[in-house]
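Predict structure. Chain length: 71.
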Amino acid sequence: YFSICEKLPYGINYERVLKALRQSLKCNGNLTKDKEGNPIIQLQGNQVNGIANFLKINKLCSPDNIIIHGL
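Prediction complete.
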């Protein structure tokens, strides 16, 4: 499994978010880009709930904007 986080609000430092997510969720991950060149955070394992909680707690986006796909 791997979990992705994409389309964060403009001006977000993806490198810092990735580092904080890796530390808080205790998993490995990397930063890639999609076909249009937009950044995507990929984390190992099923981390969707952890990512959602992290985004809510740190107020990086509102709960209404968080969409969880898959399992």
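Summary: The two ends are 10 Å apart (CA to CA).
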